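Data availability (excerpt). The following record was deposited with the supplementary files.
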Amino acid sequence: MTASIQPSRAWVEVDLPALLANARTVQSSAGVPLLPMVKANGYGLGAVAVARALESVAPWGYGVATEAEAGELRAGGITRPIVVFTPWVPGGVGGGPRVEGTRAVIGDVESLKAWLGDRGPSAREPRPFHLEIDTGMSRSGIRWDDRDALQAAAALLDGAEGWEGVFTHFHSADADLGATETQWDRFQDALCWFPRRPPLVHAANSAGALRGRMFGADLARPGIYLYGGEVGAWAPPPRPVAALKCRVVALRRVAPGDTVSYLGTWRADAPTVIATLACGYADGLLRSGSSALRAEIGGQVVPVVGRVTMDMTMVAVPEGLTRPGDVATIFGGQVSLADHAEQMGTNVYEALTSIGARVPRIYR
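Predicted structure:
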């Protein structure tokens, strides 16, 4: 949705030039083409719009978690390769019809056997795939120290058609360089088992790519940094990309002792003006942020009081600060995305991906 008219309830403004600036920062640091992660609806900001914008940095392709997400990109006109990062399992996850031009991720020997032996009667050429190596994330992939599995995979890969890439996933590139270097060394050791090096070797997420070219390999897979999430004090700060905004829809004055919201968990200790915002946990304000979140109204940062409800949230405001119809900025103004996430007791990933489907995305 691109519009200059602000909606009547809640919306998120997405600064696409800022997104592109962040992508160029990563690209310059890593020195290799990008494989931007646009899973989870482009981290909540709209996968198709994000991918269309990123086309101007000429990425190798895009990363998603599901075939449905890949299909959405194809329907939106995206033609580059798409890697589906949920591991393919024969007859189960990822086992159905595949979107044209997608790449599967294979993370164990049995799945590799099935993939190489089950192209289907209509297949005319090898289906490309990427092999995952687990170097310490302990989530998916062949473990770097499982010699039997590595040897079995090597035998299957000897002469295998369609083997396009191999990768690992860093677990602490934003916080622990030593652990990341250990994972990189494990990855290099695992690659020595294989009969050849595939065309695409990749490991660096946002933080890894911003460490410089030491983890660059052939592709960098930036995610949160593109969308305005910081990855460490050592890295250049990203440009803010998203701003969640909503309308003030009601005002009232409460007396000392009056309660606000469900279960009366907040009680006024003095006469207080309460403004009701048209944004709740169905829109992305997690209930865990009750009486902890802050919002910006009229140039001032004001506190959320009482429980966040599904559709509305209440804030305490100075007398005369606002009136119904005014705009409140939940994050993306004086309250940063990082501050907003901290107030909800979570990280910026969840803060963005929790933005509800009913919240319009407005691009500029």
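Summary of structural features: The first strand starts at residue 10 and ends at 14.
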